[in-house]
Amino acid sequence: MSEQSPKTTAAPEITSARAEFLGTKVAYQIYVRSFQDSNGDGIGDLRGITQRLDYLQKLGIDYLWITPFFVSPQHDNGYDVADYRNIESLFGTMADFDELSAEAKKHGIKLMLDMVFNHTSTDHIWFQRALAGDSKYLAYYKFVDGEPDTPPTNWQSKFGGSAWEWVPSLHKWYLHLYDTSQADLNWDNPEVRAELADVVRFWRDKGVDGFRFDVINVISKPDILEDDTLGDGRRFYTDGPHVHEYLQELVEKSGIDGLMTVGEMSSTSIENCIRYSNPADHELAMVFSFHHLKVDYLNGEKWALKEPDINELRNLLKSWQEHMTAGGGWNALFWANHDQPRPNSRFGDTVHYWEKSSKLLAVTTHLLRGTPYIYQGEELGMTNADFTTIEQYRDVESLNYFTILQNQGYSPEEALHIVSERSRDNSRTPVQWDATKTAGFTSGTPWIGIPENHTTINAAAEVDDPDSVFSFYRQLIAIRKAHPVISEGDVHFIDTAGENIIAYERTLNDCRVLVFANFSDQEVSSVSTDLFNGFDVLIGNYPDTATDAHSLLLRPFEARAFIRSSHAK
Hints:
This protein is of the alpha/beta class. The protein has an 8-stranded parallel sheet. Strands 16-17-18-23-20 form a 5-stranded antiparallel sheet. The protein has a 3-stranded antiparallel sheet with strand order 7-9-8, with no helix packed on it. Helix 11 links the parallel strand 12 (260-264) and strand 13 (286-288). The protein is globular.
């Protein structure tokens, strides 16, 4: 059980000021390897980001969250950090970073860096000194004495197999909740906590204005290690015994309280996420949670397909929105990141309703309470890769599961289909800048293939088209900045709008916004027209409002929002 101090409640004026600050902001995630290559080696880099700042400024975003570009052996795409203060040569130099930082500020854009603090790479000098038997650095990690055939617990790694690795030379096991090359740090050691706070200060001193903390809610492990007879061990370390205490210390010592910060929360709870993001607790500004991105997992299994359960999706969004609001917490709003399939392929129909599906998803999240995050290419309507052979994939997890699925009895064709739906490579194909052979991403050979639809879905075709997906995202960003009811208002879900429809209401003083989203390819009769009588259309992905005698008609993958008594800033 947690030994945390009791939670506190922020004064209403504090949470209101926080909503005014965070609610007007929109972040954009860059997966460096796939954004823009500047030197022709086929791999995206920091200078490539700098070259595209005009595009990002036109989109209207406020923060760039950049995935790790620190020195790393790249066993887990940079989330295995070997040096927190230097740049991986694949991605450039410190001079390139300084140029990016300076140029971003000129464009009105702030940088948010990705801090991977649950573990380091086993290549990190701290771990190498531990392997050499240095007692100081042995205490930086979760090393446990034992025997080679008996791990300290039966906990499982998130990447498969035991969470413990034997080191014969030390006659010890070390904990790795992720890959064997990612050794868990010992946050119970105050020297470790001081080192990590110093890393944050280093980047803060270089002008960084925001931080994303990777799987930060698993940093605190229990004092007593025991087998998990009910699961894989996560119940012992998820939202662990000292996690809030340690986060508060990190934030205080690194001087980032009040900045734009977000924590990635693994298998977490609403109650803990309220604490992580309530200003009174002085931890983080907001949280990423992932429950809504598992509604198409058959029996909860990622590699088992089913159609998305929209009723479950609605209930999850409702629960997280309404409970986090009531508790003074704050949500990061997102459909996509570097680990998820493309949302329009997942929740929409990109064959018959590509544009409508892409815009539907944008409306659904961008008008919620929280801070929206756009993943690169999402604003263009980029889709899953639709690769046709396993050789086109690069993601180790995908390649492993292609074999595992066949071992489970699936044919090669069936296994490839499952991989094509679930692979992380779906979000890692290069940004589609134009219709040329390499999509404007590189002058060389891209590290991963370019989807064939880049000839029609690309920035060059969309940036100046007022009806494009890109322009629709610009419009949504402008709405959030113009209307306090969106950035600050309360949220309540409308449960009577119909099956496969997600509907909610935003309210602030005398202003109301009603949002309706039809997650199906059928026309659906929804709420009574009386509900939005006297309202104006705020935004929609069809040119007109369709009604029958008494009801709002929602066409396939239609999203529509209405506003009454709006007081724009």
